[in-house]
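haha ok so turns out i had the wrong file open the whole time. this is the CORRECT one, sorry everyone. sequence first:
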Amino acid sequence: MNDLNGVTLEAIVTRLQAHYGWEQLGQRIDINCFISEPSVKSSLKFLRKTPWARARVEELYQGTKFTD
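then structure:
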């Protein structure tokens, strides 16, 4: 089930970054945009053109138990 309806990729990346931080995000999903000079803007650019990476980010978002 995809419960991301209405949630933007930017909102997903921003929330994951706030929850995990760049270092832990890079450990959980080994992609360069989370490891080398990470930013929301560079991550969005990469994820929008890389479907497999975007899918991994969306899976992590759906599987994360946010406390806020």
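The chain has a mean pLDDT of 93.
again sry for the mixup
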